[in-house]
Structures are given as C-alpha cells and as structure tokens.
Design brief:
Chain A: It is an enzyme of class 7 (translocase). The complex is a heterodimer of chains A (99) and B (295). Chain A has 99 residues and is mainly α. Chain A contains three helices and no strands. Chain A is elongated, with a radius of gyration of 17 Å. Chain B is extended. The chains are: A mainly alpha (99), B mainly alpha (295).
C-alpha cells in the first residue's frame, strides 16, 4: 500500500466535513464538522511527515491541535452565550450582530 | 519502500469506519449522535497517526481530542440540549443539493489533484524517529519552532480568558428573595400553588404519566417540562377503558365456553386467572365511570 492512500482518506474526510458545514444548521454540529476538517488536515500533515522523512509535518499537526483546542473553547463559549439570549442553537437565528 | 500488509489491512478496515463516522457526524439528526460518531472517527485517526510513526501525536489525539474536546462538545450539547432540536426544513430552497454538489466538486478536484501527484517512493520516519519520536519533536519545538510555541501559549491563555469573559455574567441587581418571588407570582397571576403531581393509577405510577383533570383530559402541567419538551409524556387515561372492553369480551367467551360443555380443567384455570385480573380492572373501573359522568 502506498501511504498516499492516507492523503486520499484525508481529502475525503475534509470534503465530508466541508459539506457538513454547508448543509447543517445546528451551530454545534457545524462546529463538529469544522473539527472534522481540522482532523483531516492533521492526517495529511502526519502523512507528509512520513513521506518526507522529517518531523516538521508532525510539529505543524501538533500546533493545529493546540489551535483547535483554543478554537473549541472560544467557539463553544460563543454558542452557549448565543443560546442564552436566543434559546436556539440554529445558525439561522444568528442573522443579527446584536440582540 | 512500501508499507506492510498488516498496515494495508488496517487502513482499509479502519478507513471505511472513519468515513462512516464522518458521514454519521454530518447526517445524524441528534447532536449527541453526531458527537459520538465524530469521537469514533477521531480515535481511528489516532490509530492512523500511530501507524504513520507519529507516536506522540497519536496519544495526544486521544487525550486532547477524544478526551477533552469531545467531552467539551458533549457538555455543551447537554447544556443546550433538549430544546435545541435541529429542524431539517430547508430555509433556502435547493441549498442542500447545492451544498452536496459543491462538496462533490471540491472532493473530486482535491482527489484528482492528489492522483496527479507522483508519489512512488517515500522516505519513512525510520531515521527521523531513531532517537525517539518524542525527543525528535521536542528538539524541533524548542529550537526551530520555539517562537511559534510561545505564541501558541499566549493564544491558549487568551482563549481561556475569552471563554470566561464570554460566559461569565455579572449579577447587576440583588437576587430576589422568596417573599418577593411569591408576591410577583401573585401579581402576575402565574401558577400560584405548587404544580400538580403526576397521575397515580392502579397500574401506572411514574413521573411521565400526567394526572387527569376533572373532565378526564390529561393535565400537561403535572409532567416535568423536560419530558414535555422531549415529547415523552405517556398518557394512560384511555387504557383503562380498553382493558374494560377486553375483560368484557373475555368474560363473554368464558360464559359461552361454560354453556357449550362442562368446565374443562384449562378453562377453569383461565377463569381463575381472569378473576384474578378482575379486581385490578374493577379498580380502574370507578375512575372510568367517574370520567364518563364528568363528560
């Protein structure tokens, strides 16, 4: 098996995640799809590290994970705040910048 | 240099499961199911990291992603929870098909691009990992990437403070006392006495069963708001009537059997069972007749 198969898988997961962001309207699920896309990128980075025989790809994947963790914390806090004011987690209701 | 057969088998087995998990994340109606599908996909990705020689990242993936991030997601799903049902009705016409079309186009473009890349041989991490994967990563993080590493630390602190600022609510007025709350309820004409208790019947006694109003209709208020929002209210007010019909039919059958021939042993056994059921049914009976009278 050629390790490029991992890249194909990564592309597939990224595409599914992207389609999910476009299709779903529950903010939490949209967020999960973004996480899926980030994970797919991580898989690609790790595979590149193996293809090229150095660890830089893994470092980038590591930084991606840290940034994803920070993003989840802030994003979920925004969703909770939004839910408190609108009693809904649907992105359709987030059509105004203010209450 | 190629990979082992074992890795190929692992890739094809787990790869399919990972794609199924991803599809589940997108397609599941309930957010909790989506979260669990995503957790499955992430665990499989961790296995793939390990197979690709990223031992540190594989473990971090499990600890940080499936351990911390997915649990955070579940927390928020539980907080936002029941009332945040995702309506599947399209608000923009044709949006779903357009989105799927865009996804397909993008995927085909991406995969075709990958197909054109000429990757016939690869180096492998044997040399890079020779001094240990974690040691190799540490050397890079604290030399070449030390600046990015410091910035990441600042980012994490900012995120933590940001989350606290976003979710923290300062209490701007004094909390109302119990007396004030009671007075407000009377003034607003809200439900002043305690909420009614759920129904207690001869055969049913649970919090999801509404009590009956004098006119025989179920009292929605007697069931917890959460159960009402989930649509899990179990109405048993009509059941007693059905049981009464069953009992009448059975007793008719029994009477016919008596008329045809002498009491057979099984029949008499059935009769005993019927009569054993009798009291419970008749216990329901008065309630029913009371309902009927009210109607």
């Amino acid at each position: 098996m050629n390790p490029i198969n991992y890249l194909y898988l990564s592309a597939l997961l990224f595409t599914i995640g992207g389609a999910g962001v476009l299709v779903r309207r529950n903010a939490i699920i949209v967020f999960m799809c973004v996480e899926l896309m980030l994970n797919a990128c991580n898989l690609a980075f790790v595979t590149f590290a193996r293809l090229h025989g150095n660890l830089d790809g893994q470092i980038i994947a590591f930084f991606t994970m840290v940034v994803a963790a920070a993003e989840v914390v802030v994003g979920l806090a925004i969703i909770v705040t939004f839910f408190r004011s609108r009693h809904s987690a649907s992105v359709d209701d987030a059509s105004l910048m203010k209450l | 240099m190629t990979t082992s057969t074992g890795e190929a088998v692992q890739f094809w087995l787990l790869g399919i499961v990972a794609v199924l998990g991803a599809l589940g994340t997108v397609a599941m109606k309930k957010a909790v199911h989506s979260a669990l599908s995503l957790a499955g996909t992430m665990i499989i990705l961790a296995v793939f990291y390990l197979a690709n020689g990223a031992y540190f990242l594989g473990v971090v993936q499990i600890v940080v992603y499936t351990g911390a991030i997915m649990m955070l997601f579940l927390f928020v799903v539980m907080l936002v929870g029941i009332t945040a049902a995702d309506s599947l009705k399209e608000t923009i016409r044709g949006q779903r098909w357009l989105a799927v079309l865009c996804g397909l186009g993008f995927g085909i473009l991406l995969i075709a691009g990958l197909g054109n890349a000429s990757v016939h041989s690869f180096t492998g991490l044997g040399q890079a990992n020779s001094g240990g994967n974690v040691e190799g990563l540490a050397r890079l993080i604290f030399t070449t990437y030390v600046w990015a590493f410091e910035i990441t630390g600042a980012l994490l602190i900012t995120a933590a403070v940001g989350a606290m600022v976003l979710t923290h609510r300062e209490r701007t007025e004094r909390a109302a006392t119990q007396r004030e709350l009671a007075e407000r309820r009377v003034r607003e004409g809200a439900q002043v006495p305690p909420l009614p208790a759920p129904g207690v019947y001869a055969r049913h006694n649970a919090v999801d069963i509404p009590g009956l109003l004098p006119d025989g209709t179920p009292a929605e208020l007697s069931v917890s708001e959460t159960l009402r929002a989930r649509g899990q209210v179990r109405d048993v007010s009509g059941e007693a009537l059905e049981h009464l019909k069953e009992l009448e039919q059975r007793s008719e059958e029994y009477a016919e059997g008596e008329g045809e021939s002498g009491a057979r042993p099984e029949n008499s056994a059935n009769g005993a069972a019927n009569s054993a059921n009798g009291p419970a049914n008749s216990a329901n009976g008065p309630a029913n007749s009371a309902n009927g009278a009210a109607k």
